Description:
- By secondary structure, chain A is an all-alpha fold.
- Helices cover 73% and strands 2% of the residues of chain A.
- The longest helix of chain A has 33 residues, at 3-35.
- Chain B has twelve helices and 14 strands.
- Chains A and B meet through helix 1, strand 2, helix 8, helix 9 and helix 10 of A and helix 2, strand 7, helix 7, helix 8 and helix 9 of B.
Amino acid sequence: MQFSEQLIQYLLSGLSTGAIYALIGFGFAIIYNTTSIINFAQGEFVMLGGMMSVYFFSVLNIPLPLAVLAAIPLATATGAVFERLAIRPLKQATHLNLVIITIGGSILIRGLAMLLWGKDTHAMPTFSGNEPLNLGGATILPQHLWIFGITLIIIICNRLFFNYSITGKAMRACACNRKAASLVGIDVRRMVLFSFIISSAMGAMAGIIIAPLTMTSYDVGIMLGLKGFCAAIIGGMSSGFGTLLGGLLLGVLESLGAGLISSGYKDAIAFIILLLILFIRPQGLFKKAETERV
Amino acid sequence: MKTQFLRLMFIFLSIVLSTATVVAAPPIKIGALFSITGPPSFLGEPERNSAQMVVDEINKAGGIKGRKIELVVYDTQGDATKAVQAASRLIKDDKVVAIIGPSTTGDTMAVIPIVEKAQIPMVSCAAGIKITEPVKRWVFKTAQNDSLAVARIFEHLKKRKINKIAILTVSDSFGASGREQLKNQAANFGIQIVSDDTYGPKDTDMTVQLTKIRSSQAQILICWGTNPGPAVIARNARQLGLKLPLYMSHGVSYKKFIELAGDAAEGIILPSGRVLVADLLPNSDKQKKSLLSYVRDYQRHFKAEGDHFGGHAWDAVMLLKGAFEKGAVTPAAIRDQLEKTRHFAGIGGIFNYSPEDHSGLTKDAFVLVEIRQKDWVLVK
């Protein structure tokens, strides 16, 4: 096998995992951008999306497209309930408190999922067959195209929503300055709820489209959540192309590192990048440094 | 009159006392440490089920010499600290005479110093070779050593004249131990490892490692891990159109793997305890009787197929039962009797313990099975 073919396979593998990281990273970015907290329960919505569709599909025997369509609103509802019960009731909470609450929430959701669906790993059929597609000597599955396609659609929708719709703009205003936003008549609490709804729906979607490839279990959310967080950090917590590039970059570096250096360092590479970014460019790779006026 | 009354009284009393001794004979208390929850729950749950099942059956049949067995189970959650606490509790509070488990090598290694100090015999259900090598006075085990599984695969490869292999192991204690054994034994069989890669236990895509392996000189690939990693690898190998024959470890020798890997599981060869293929074994097989009864009982109680993980706990209880039947009820006597166990045909294999060998099995404890049409077949 040619080295160039190997390289193409590494890149393709990296891009497809990277797209997933990006999709999960968006969830982090959206909540961060409206509430300036980091929602560490984001990974659990990824898990919920996958587990719920597996449950609907293989236990309740609902056809796959319907199972998927049912899983998204349910996971989203969980996100909304989580916001209403765990985030909103806290009146004077600091950001640190809220972040810790999201960690607690993630442990709770994971525990409930374990009790409900057991500890086994579950498989789910792919959306359109298992026949690999050949691309310049490298192969990908049709499911990878679904991942690329859905990620792209979600990013474009996001972009349009946050830049051109009133609600989207209002959510961004909350991120800039909560008090000012509420003074001009924006219902900040509703915007926070919206952000949780949007990001849990996106997380669930990510969980669903990757489940046929990676399989799913009650604890897949931890690692995927962390990788998504890395992607969002690299992208400077932007809800646009920054996070997308961050995710893709992370995926590609991981797979090149594993392929060319050593597969033992795969996760180490992701977290070293995370640390480097946090030390050197905490505002993200693609953002100009902002000066904050106090 | 008076003598008659006394005589009656005596008879009455003796009846009461004799039944009282039967009823009040204290149960023999054995402790069990299993990872019923936590990541290694796929081990601990069938182990707990199997152990409880055997104990219930022994008690239903009247116990051992009139004494019932009481099983005290604690969950270690696959956490060495919790295993140590639970072991101390079993010894100090519950005053058990012997301990079964823990389920994982990590937990077992952590508990060993405690049972050695308290002088309580322990029959571990974990596979790590370190547990019984060097021999510890109070520690036995029922799970087959990794080294035996590796030897079984290598023997088969040698027969097929394959000498260049690639290995892909998971980066946890199971994979690390397998990797060590694969590397150590390769030279003895004239086998060369041309590609040595690892993957993380939670990794979701292994195409990178497989691409690397494809470009190497390897004739076959051995993957050492527990679910879900190996299933992902099987699927990725299919995606890449990898032509290399795939070998796996005994870590995936249960039905779940076939379910997860789907069509990609076809043709994979792996070493396994005999329990998977119990009904395919020739009638001359010494273990067949134990295997079939275990599979049948497990099916009846838990509506699931018994796997060889549960079998480790079944073996452990039966080994202890053997010792009790020979009259050993104190920890020291149980230990001595365990060490004298010979030709015990259990689920994991035929056990022959000796002062030099506390794991008791040979590589014949494993058979090679191949996955064909979503089921196991014996590889001759």
